[in-house]
Automatic annotation (TrEMBL):
Keyword tags: Signal
A Pfam family annotated for this UniProt entry: IQ
Superkingdom of origin: Eukaryota
Name of the protein described by the UniProt record: IQ domain-containing protein F6
Organism from which the protein derives: Echinops telfairi
Signal peptide positions on this chain: 1-25
PANTHER family listed in its UniProt record: IQ DOMAIN-CONTAINING PROTEIN F6 (PTHR21633:SF15), IQ MOTIF CONTAINING F (PTHR21633)
Coiled coil start-end: none
Keyword Signal found: yes
Length: 107
């Protein structure tokens, strides 16, 4: 009788321990999954911030290059306006040929 009651108590203790261990495993799995979600959210945020910073840097470089191109173009246009119509040439033909010296300045 004592043995059977001890066996029943041991089996009940074993069932309770199994239930407790499964509960602990579920809690641990929930914590792991929460930590994984938190980690992925943080990683995604880091990637997003890096992408935004790189986009900002690329835009800044593009605007600097565009501004430099505009400055170069404005100087080139000024130079071409200053030298527009300016044709200088010297043509020499020897012997029985014509000798020609041309200088045309249009301002």
């Amino acid at each position: 009788m004592v043995r059977s009651s001890l066996l029943h108590m041991a089996l009940r203790a074993w069932v309770i321990q199994c239930w407790w261990r499964s509960l602990q495993a579920q809690r641990l799995e929930r914590r792991r999954s929460l930590a994984l979600r938190l980690y992925t959210c943080q990683e995604w945020a880091v990637v997003k911030v890096q992408a935004l910073v790189r986009m900002w840097q690329a835009r800044r470089r593009f605007h600097q290059a565009r501004q430099a191109a505009c400055i170069i173009q404005s100087y080139w246009r000024w130079h071409s306006r200053q030298t527009r119509g300016l044709i200088r040439g010297r043509y020499e033909v020897k012997a029985s040929r014509l000798e020609l010296d041309i200088e045309i300045l249009l301002t």
